[in-house]
Amino acid sequence: MSMKLIRIKDVMERTGLARSTIYKYISLGQFPQPIKLGTRAVAWVESEIEAWINDSIKRRDGKVA
Predict the structure, then answer these.
(1) Cα–Cα–Cα angle for 24, 10, 22, rounded to 5 degrees
(2) Residue 39 backbone dihedrals phi, psi, to 5 degrees
(3) pLDDT tens string for the chain (65 positions)?
(4) Which residue of 19, 22, 26, 63 sits 20 to 30 Å from the alpha carbon of 44, by its own alpha carbon?
């Protein structure tokens, strides 16, 4: 499992979601939490984003409730 950290632009690019949607999903508990890197910087664990994408595909295909 990858422990690489990726920044918001990469998350947006990989998911196709806007910044505001990502933070909305985080507040609803529907998206991986970011890791605080500093006072104004956060990043996400790459493998958690990939897992979220895979889970979204499974939900679309009816494989997960």
Answers:
(1) 5
(2) -65, -30
(3) 558 999 999 999 999 999 999 999 999 999 999 999 999 999 999 999 999 999 999 999 997 65
(4) 63
